[in-house]
Amino acid sequence: MTLPRLHAIRCLGVGLAVDDFGTGYSSLSYLADLPVNYVKIDKSFIDRITPDAGGTTMARAVIDLSRALGFTCIAEGVESESQRAALDELGCENSQGYLFARPGPATDMAAVLHRLQLGPARPAVTTPTKV
Q1: What integer best gives the mean pLDDT of the chain?
Q2: Nearest to 9, CA basis, from 36, 43, 49
Q3: How confident is the model at residue 38 (pLDDT cuts 50, 70, 90)?
Q4: Mind listing the pLDDT tens digit for each residue in 61-102?
Q5: To the nearest 10°, the Cα dihedral for 115, 119, 121, 127?
Q6: pLDDT higher than threshold 50 for residue 124
Q7: Where does 2-99 sit in CATH, by number?
Q8: Residue with the larger pLDDT of the pair 49 and 130
Q9: Catalytic residue numbers?
Q10: Cα Rg for the chain, rounded, in angstroms?
Q11: Phi, psi of 16 (to 5 degrees)
């Protein structure tokens, strides 16, 4: 009953995401059948990204799986520049977390986006930062 409803929602043009992928009841057997656009890597995997061997294995697996299934991958809970850089190297094109902005009121969003795109005291055009 849920799967037909998800397909109907997707047909309306709504993007759907699997949140906290890799934890709880996430199942690989269902992933290929879900009409989703995005897979969000759970913060617990992002926290394990370290420079030493094996620290990025789970994140790499989710990123590669997402790409193979045609989904956009989003890393949740990115808090450091080293995590962001490691995710870039792994090919994860989208990140969210405290590194970019803390939670706040919607009315502050324009200022946050301006800061992320232009940075402090920068004129004109720069390369957009991942959000």
Answers
A1: 82
A2: 36
A3: very high
A4: 889 999 999 999 999 999 999 999 999 999 998 999 999 888
A5: -120
A6: no
A7: 3.20.20.450
A8: 49
A9: 76
A10: 16
A11: -115, 145
Strand order in the sheet with 17-21: 17-21, 38-41, 72-75, 94-95
The tokens 């906290």 sit on which residue? 20
3-state SS track over the chain: CHHHHHHHHHHCCCCCEEEEECCCCCCHHHHCCCCCCEEEECHHHHCCCCCCCCCCHHHHHHHHHHHHHCCEEEECCCCCHHHHHHHHHHCCCEECCCCCCCCCCHHHHHHHHHHHHHCCCCCCCCCCCCC
Determine the Cα–Cα distance for residues 26 and 122; give it in Å rounded to an integer.
42
Would you state the pLDDT for residue 122? 41
125's tokens? 């055009």
Domain borders along the chain are: 2-99, 101-131
**In the predicted structure, residue 2 carries a pLDDT above the cut 80:** yes
Assigned token pair, 107: 């009315």
